[in-house]
Design a protein that fits this description.
Four Helix Bundle (Hemerythrin (Met), subunit A); two-stranded antiparallel ribbon; 5% strand
Length: 155
């Protein structure tokens, strides 16, 4: 039977592979296509890169026993600010950040002790979760946005 860590690692690697395969060879026109009502494909990739960091911060706070709920935090405002902060980056630069942040996520995953999996707290998405749940949310979130990217790129 596969360990929890190995199963999560496999999920994260597979979802990353799916994203990278989908955007391989993306040209400027494709990257500017709307992926949803607010963001282009390039902006969606920027969101995925930045969201990875946010998820890792939630895990780190849960590991430290710190509160993960910030007063006056608005997820949409935060996400838009993060995407806007990456407006001058090329798709190549965004994908480099995305890969680096996924590597950091996998490194963080390797530090989780068996006794840590069920540590829980608030997720900025508006729900309570565990450390295990945050790692699951990363790939679920990624798959959801990948469907939007694929739809935008469909002929």
């Amino acid at each position: 039977m596969m360990s929890k860590r190995d199963a999560l690692r496999q999920r994260l690697l597979q979802s990353q592979e799916d994203v990278l395969a989908t955007v391989s060879g993306l040209d400027a026109e494709q990257s500017s296509l709307l992926a949803n009502e607010g963001w282009s494909v390039r902006e969606m990739l920027a969101h995925l890169a930045s969201a990875e960091l946010g998820h890792c911060q939630v895990v780190q706070r849960l590991l430290q026993g710190k509160d993960t709920k910030a007063e006056d935090f608005d997820l949409d405002t935060f996400n838009n600010a993060e995407v806007n902060a990456r407006q001058d980056r090329s798709v190549t630069e965004i994908l480099e950040e995305y890969r680096a942040n996924r590597s950091a996520t996998l490194e963080l995953l390797d530090t989780i002790d068996e006794s840590d999996w069920e540590k829980s707290g608030y997720h900025p998405g508006g729900f309570d979760t565990t450390i295990e749940g945050v790692f699951r949310v990363i790939s679920i979130h990624e798959k959801r946005h990948l469907r939007e990217i694929k739809s935008a790129l469909a002929p």
